[in-house]
Each structure stands twice: as structure tokens, then as C-alpha cells.
Amino acid sequence: MTRSDIIKLIYQKKGNLLIRDIEKIVDMLTEKISSSLAEGHRIELRGFGVFAPKKLAPKMASNPKGGAKINLPERVSVKFKAGKLLSEKINSKI
Q1: DSSP label at 17?
Q2: How far apart are CA 21 and CA 14, in angstroms?
């Protein structure tokens, strides 16, 4: 599902909102999540899941194309853990 799909879905469900207002809301939400993660904060959306920054230690890796060893510096990745309601909904479809 893309950003435009989300905007269309919200518009279909809540027809009293203008598309430009929905776009602003979606942009504000994604910007706030991104900036909070960049600052090292954890984001919890009840029923959906938790986004949390995770520090990855520096390590030696190999280039899959040529096999050459490369040094990867310390970096931060985003970890996602699905919430209980999301997990149940996904697993009920299997």
C-alpha cells in the first residue's frame, strides 16, 4: 500500500475531509515518526506495533559481487515489532 492508496482510503471512509487536508495529515504523521526515530525515540501505535531505533555495531562484511572485505561503521536501523491486534489479524488470514 502506497501513500496515495492510504490517502484515497481515508477519503473514501471520511468523505467530509478534503484530499489536501488528508495529505497534510499523512505528511505530518510520517514526518513526526521519522524525526522522532532520528532523535532516538521509540514510537508506539497501540494495536499496530512499535518502531524503535536499534544501534548496529561496526563489523566486517564481504561484498557479494567480488567477495572483497569491507568495513561497515556503526549505524542505526529501525526495528518494528507488530502489536497484538495486528499479529492476530495477520495470523487469522493464514
Answers
A1: S
A2: 11
